[in-house]
Write a structure and sequence with these properties.
single chain; alpha/beta; 12 helices; about 15% strand
Length: about 350
């Protein structure tokens, strides 16, 4: 775990020293420094601060309150500090007010968190310099559809969801994709969430002949359904979404349950060196730490390349950056060129890429 007070104090000192002895690229790191979002803000600051220090660049730490109408003051602080690029931005509320002023001064903003489709549409329409490392709306469903059509198209599929807005919309997107490809689920249902057992549900799945089921619901409901199917000797291959990245309690998840989710980057081979280096400094590479490190790396490399004469935004769009969370490139719409969601499988104590099938 990150020592919040220690890291926060270290970053404040680093930021103060950097402003007094500017070096390299000046990067603004916008993240909450206090309040209920301080833990996430500390993750952003820790990952970005590590990379900025390693690269010999200059860090300017800006507090993000995530309140409505707070973004203009954030932009003013970034402009006053003469940053060349700003990263972090946990909240859309900050970006909405900051982006118009950042456009006027040509400072690109790279968000590691904000997923709003409307925000990006407004940014493109108004020429605001927003780039997104966070997945856009719809990318989770797109990856789920890809997995189902690739691996399940020949099998009897069930779609069930928990009645929440997210669960319903995600499952409906899957259903629409199946229908567009000429596939019809053998069973669909809305189940009651938060139940201690779902035996009646898994028996209905069996009667319908389903062997594969996509569940638009939370982790504990999926764990209950998987447990009850196993107890009833009903063979079900289960797939769910990013909501599976939650605490493995109160009921542990069965090995083999799959999810389309953002990976824990620290367990990926390309992240090993960075994760080890972070841990050596007392920073656990969890949450936003590695994405923020990647954002700082991208910001620094793009700004250095832009020093040769090309606009910084042009360099962000024209470059594929090699980072600890994989190769990163931006589309013309300033979104990630590659879908960051991955098919993962629960094995004992975490989600990992599925093992290759044995021959």
């Amino acid at each position: 775990m990150i020592n919040l007070r220690g890291i926060a104090a270290c970053l404040m000192l680093l930021g103060a020293a950097a402003q007094g002895h500017a070096a390299g690229v000046t990067i603004g790191v916008v993240a909450p420094q206090n309040g209920t979002l301080a833990l996430l803000g500390t993750q952003i600051a820790a990952g970005a601060g590590f990379e900025i220090q390693q690269s010999g660049n200059t860090l300017v730490a800006i507090n993000e309150t995530c309140e409505d109408n707070s973004g203009a003051a954030v932009a003013d602080a970034l402009v006053a500090a003469k940053v060349q690029v700003a990263i972090g931005f946990l909240c859309s509320e900050t970006l909405e007010g900051a982006l118009p002023k950042l456009k006027d001064t040509g400072i690109p903003a790279i968000t590691v968190s904000a997923r709003s489709r409307i925000l990006m549409e407004d940014a493109l329409k108004n020429g605001w310099p927003l780039f997104r490392l966070a997945p856009a709306d719809g990318t989770e469903a797109a990856k789920i559809n890809e997995v189902i059509l690739k691996d399940w198209a020949a099998d009897p599929i069930a779609l069930i969801e928990d009645g929440t807005i997210h669960g319903r919309e995600l499952t409906e997107a899957v259903r629409n994709a199946l229908e567009q490809n000429g596939l019809k689920p053998v069973f669909t249902d809305t189940y009651r969430p938060g139940q201690e057992q779902q035996i009646a549900l898994v028996r209905r799945l069996k009667r319908a002949g389903a062997t594969r089921v996509f569940i638009g619901g939370d982790r504990n409901d999926v764990a209950v359904i998987a447990r009850d199917a196993k107890a009833e000797n009903i063979p079900l291959s289960i797939l769910s979404g990013d909501a599976m990245r939650a605490a493995d309690q109160p009921l542990p998840l069965d090995t083999g349950v799959r999810a389309v989710a953002l990976p824990e980057y620290a367990v990926l081979p390309e992240a090993t060196a960075a994760a080890d280096a972070l841990r050596a400094k007392g920073i656990e590479p969890e949450g936003y730490v590695l994405p923020s490190l990647a954002a700082a790396l991208i910001a620094g490399q793009a700004a250095e390349a832009a020093a040769a004469g090309k606009p910084l935004q042009e360099m962000l769009l024209a470059t594929t950056f090699q980072t600890p969370i994989g190769a990163i490139a931006f589309t013309a719409a300033h979104e990630l060129a590659q879908n960051p969601y991955r098919l993962l499988e629960w094995r004992g104590n975490g989600f990992f890429p599925p093992a290759a099938p044995t021959q």
